[in-house]
Specification:
RNaseH-like_sf; about 450 residues; 5-stranded mixed β-sheet; Putative transposase; nucleic acid binding; elongated; Nucleotidyltransferase, domain 5; Transposase-like_Mu_C; Arc Repressor Mutant, subunit A; single chain; 4-stranded antiparallel β-sheet; 13 helices; alpha+beta; 4 domains
């Protein structure tokens, strides 16, 4: 190109065909340096393979479950090509086809819809802007054993309601029974109502109650309560609890900061120390942590203390009356008649001055199973009054406590009966032995085990 070296010499020394060099010179003289650039292929980026069927076959093999390696797919394609007397594609060609398959399609084929949803489906996460906009509710079986009223070791369940915005705990309910609609209802009642402890400020009616798809959350009872209180229910889809990691992290924090240091804490279902706590003692430990540690320390996600974040410039919406919260109590659907001495319920007598004017009338009872000292009385679906049991009015007595006490009394009576029967049997045997000793010729009376006694026994004896 500089005129001093011939094209023939360059072709000879560089081993380039003379026609190629002449073509380059011609392109340079016409277009300059751009004329020497290699033209881009019109099919650049596409796999060059003669047979379209091989592309489909390669993609089909790549989507099989369990997944095949690229080498295994290549060997299958080569073997098939030879059987059909076709030129097999190169490994690079097969590799290029597989690399162009949508990764989402590969995950769906190899790992299933759940893995695909978790990684690729768009998740709607609503960011709250104020307290009580969304409350989350969930149950968990606590990793701890306690001692129940009968002295048995049992694992309790915790129902928790959390304010999504501040991460503050609005209400809890601890029970030895499996999750149920009433557990959720009682936790929600505590969450909405004003607390006795002035340090636990969280209260009011949430705009949305976000729960899982469990039958206890989907119950008619909870649905009717939410309608009455104008709460919108939002349920996560089955098997897809997105957005509920906040309350699950609280459960994890509870394990790591509270339960692990208590007697009866369990790992993989086995207690690492001897259980000694009662259900009430465990609830006290959890509440102490919530109010005095969790609520007052800055949260790792928000950077603020939950209790301060919840109450900052916020005025909660409260129910029109306390009677509205009674919808969340257990209801005895069978009406009771008001007697002259009050209302009989669970073997106890409940009285109130208001009942004097309703003797003989049918009423409905609502109650909290954690405290049977008082019941709520409704007449024709309207709140009438509170009635108290004077025998336990100064105490907090649960239905479980009463049932346990009754069983204890009954078992004690059975023990007395058994002792009496053994005593009678012992006396009879002693008398028979004495009689046999006085009359040596008289054989001792032997009781026929198959012969029924002629003595008639009655249930009231």
């Amino acid at each position: 190109m500089d005129g001093n070296i011939s094209a023939t010499k360059v072709a000879k020394t560089e081993h380039i065909p003379i026609r190629t060099i002449r073509h380059w010179l011609n392109q340079f003289s016409k277009k300059g340096l751009p004329g020497l650039e290699r033209a881009k292929r019109s099919d650049r980026g596409n796999v060059r393979i003669l047979n379209e069927e091989f592309q489909e076959l390669t993609r089909g093999l790549a989507l099989q479950k369990p997944p095949l390696s690229i080498s295994a797919i290549y060997r299958k394609i080569v073997a098939l090509s030879k059987r059909q007397d076709l030129k097999p594609p190169s490994y690079e060609t097969i590799y290029g086809i597989i690399r162009k398959i949508n990764p989402a399609l590969l995950m769906l084929a190899h790992e299933g819809s759940k893995a695909y949803q978790q990684k690729y489906e768009l998740i709607f996460r609503r960011e709250c802007r104020t307290s009580n906009e969304i409350w989350q509710s969930d149950h968990t079986e606590l990793d701890i054993y306690i001692i129940d009223a009968n002295g048995k070791e049992r694992k309790p369940w915790l129902t928790t309601i959390m304010d999504d915005y501040s991460r503050a705990i609005a209400g809890i309910f601890i029970s030895l029974e499996s999750p149920s609609a009433i557990n959720t209802a009682l936790a929600l009642r505590q969450a909405i109502g004003k607390k006795e402890d002035p340090g636990w400020e969280i209260c009011g009616i949430p705009q949305i109650l976000y729960t899982d798809h469990g039958s206890d959350f989907m119950s008619h009872h909870i649905e009717q309560v939410c309608i009455a209180l104008k709460i919108r229910m939002l349920n996560s889809m089955v098997g897809r609890p997105q957005g509920r990691g906040k309350i699950e992290r609280f459960f994890q924090t509870l394990n790591e900061c509270v339960l692990i240091d208590l007697p009866g804490f369990s790992i993989k279902g086995k207690p690492v120390s001897k259980p000694t706590l009662s259900l009430a003692q465990l609830e006290g430990a959890i509440m102490n942590f919530i109010l005095n540690t969790y609520h007052v320390n800055n949260h790792s996600s928000t950077g603020q203390a939950p209790i301060k974040m919840w109450s900052a410039g916020f005025l909660p919406q409260m129910p029109e009356s306390s009677a509205m919260l009674d919808l969340l109590l257990l209801t005895i659907h069978k009406p009771r008649k008001v007697q002259r001495d009050g209302i009989q319920f669970q073997g106890m007598r409940y009285i109130a001055p208001t009942l004097a004017g309703f003797v003989g009338e049918l009423i409905t009872i609502r109650y909290d199973p954690r405290d049977l000292a008082e019941i709520k009385v409704y007449y024709q679906e309207s709140f009438l009054c509170k009635a108290v049991c004077q025998d336990i009015a100064e105490m907090v007595v649960s239905l479980k406590d009463i049932q346990t006490a009754r069983n204890k009394i009954k078992n004690g009576l059975y023990l007395q009966i058994k002792k009496s029967q053994l005593l009678v049997k012992s006396i009879i045997q002693k008398k028979e032995a004495e009689k046999a000793a006085i009359e040596p010729g008289t054989p001792a009376i032997k009781k026929d085990p198959h012969k029924k006694s002629s003595l008639k026994l009655y249930d009231n004896e």
